[in-house]
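User: Design a sequence. Structure:
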């Protein structure tokens, strides 16, 4: 009998828990009074307060999605939407409280900053607790700060972009985000500025029965370039936590943006995140995504190619274990001629985990001479895991090049036999195959983050196979 079972993940450092201590925690639920209190606590300008209240009205009108995973266990009456930790925003790591600092130290954030990053933001529960950026970028006019600071110090830039790429009525959890958002990152790269070293924000949720709703807004102006990295994790609790962040990317004419993220949420987390990019003429946005955690994930980054010659590439991997339902994918809209998209999605499922790739490619009548290539590969490590591919390809002009390829399979017994005949154990052979399967994603990450992703895969495969 073939041995295929792999032990459940030992989450190691990611399940570090601090005491649920905070400076302020909003009462559970979602009412007008709660939204007004969040706005008061954050000292919002009047326009933001009104925005939040209108978003709440939209939330109340919209229905839960019924076409994906069952999220009926989510009860907003049991979720606290704002938790302020016992610290202010710090520009020196030494000023961060010891318990919070120790958590980020163990996750490797300060060391990463020293060795490979041009700037770092660290969010703990609902607030950014640390932020820094190299002086040379400041001198070039690059802005990298938390969203609350951006609302106060760059009101015109924020107001003209905030939730314009991702409108509040997009779906119910975008409306929820608009009402309760807190924390997140704001980046503006001026015309022609090339940021050669990545910026990174890391989001850590510690408080149980709460939500994290960070907002990331990135504007890369004409001819500029940037690599931005996000990481996120949380310890496991017995009750549901919610993540409903929002990422808005604006890539101006002839600009370039790479957005990389490794998500390692705990397996009591509902990850209902929304990410979109608007890409102008001659510009390009690349997405690199690793999804390893959460009980349920519904996440479909989207590129809207609005300018002639705009490009996008998506490279992503999902890894679902026991009790996980990861419904991920990618959407791209070709709205202009000579645009191009390349999608390379991979998923791994084990111990009854479920991975679904759900996609949309729409090439409009205006997008003549455009190209799109989609490849979706799924690897199942046992006989009772599930992998589905649900593509929608909406091609509205004949003057295009389009291809879609999907493969679902298990590890080949012949390959295992070959590797074992070369001296590897069955466990090492399977682990090598899985790492090779994931290599196209890990090779797109900076070295430090490729190592982190490989470590996560090793954690998932840790233990005896038998």
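Assistant: Done.
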């Amino acid at each position: 009998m073939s041995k295929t079972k792999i032990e459940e993940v030992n989450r190691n450092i990611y399940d570090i828990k601090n005491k649920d201590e905070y400076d302020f925690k909003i009462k559970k639920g979602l009412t007008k009074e709660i939204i007004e209190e969040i706005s008061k606590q954050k000292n919002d300008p009047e326009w933001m307060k009104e925005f939040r209240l209108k978003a709440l009205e939209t939330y109340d009108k919209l229905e839960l999605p019924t076409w994906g995973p069952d999220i009926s266990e989510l009860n907003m009456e049991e979720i606290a939407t704002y938790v302020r930790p016992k610290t202010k925003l710090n520009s020196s790591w030494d000023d961060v409280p010891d318990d919070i600092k120790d958590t980020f130290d163990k996750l490797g954030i300060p060391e990463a900053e020293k060795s490979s990053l041009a700037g770092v933001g660290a969010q703990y529960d609902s607030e950014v607790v640390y932020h820094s950026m190299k002086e040379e970028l400041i001198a070039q006019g690059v802005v990298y700060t938390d969203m609350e600071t951006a609302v106060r110090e760059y009101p015109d830039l924020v107001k003209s972009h905030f939730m314009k790429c991702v409108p509040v009525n997009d779906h119910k959890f975008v409306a929820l985000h608009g009402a309760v958002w807190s924390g997140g990152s704001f980046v503006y790269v001026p015309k022609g500025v090339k940021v050669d070293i990545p910026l990174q924000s890391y989001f850590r949720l510690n408080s149980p029965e709460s939500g994290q709703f960070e907002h990331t807004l990135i504007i890369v102006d004409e001819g500029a370039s940037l690599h931005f990295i996000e990481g996120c994790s949380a310890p496991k609790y017995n009750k549901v936590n919610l993540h409903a962040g929002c990422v808005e990317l604006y890539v101006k004419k002839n600009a370039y943006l790479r957005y990389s993220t490794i998500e390692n949420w705990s397996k009591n987390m509902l990850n209902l995140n929304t990410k979109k990019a608007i890409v102008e003429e001659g510009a390009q946005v690349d997405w690199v995504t690793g999804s390893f955690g959460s009980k349920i994930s519904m996440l479909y980054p989207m590129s809207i190619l609005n300018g002639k010659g705009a490009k996008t590439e998506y490279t992503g991997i999902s890894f679902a274990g026991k009790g996980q339902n990861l419904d991920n994918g990618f959407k791209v809209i070709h709205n202009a001629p000579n645009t191009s998209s390349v999608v390379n999605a991979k998923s791994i499922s084990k111990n009854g985990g479920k991975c679904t790739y759900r996609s949309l490619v729409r090439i409009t009548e205006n997008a003549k001479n455009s190209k799109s290539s989609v490849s979706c590969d799924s690897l199942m490590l046992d006989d009772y895991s599930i992998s589905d591919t649900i593509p929608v390809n909406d091609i509205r002009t004949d003057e295009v090049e389009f291809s879609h390829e999907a493969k679902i399979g298990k590890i080949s017994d012949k390959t295992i036999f070959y590797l074992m005949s070369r001296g590897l154990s069955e466990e090492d052979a399977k682990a090598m195959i899985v790492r090779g399967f994931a290599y196209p994603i890990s090779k797109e990450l900076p070295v430090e983050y490729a190592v982190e992703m490989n470590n996560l895969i090793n954690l998932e495969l840790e233990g005896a196979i038998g």
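The longest strand covers residues 370-380. The longest helix spans residues 426-442.
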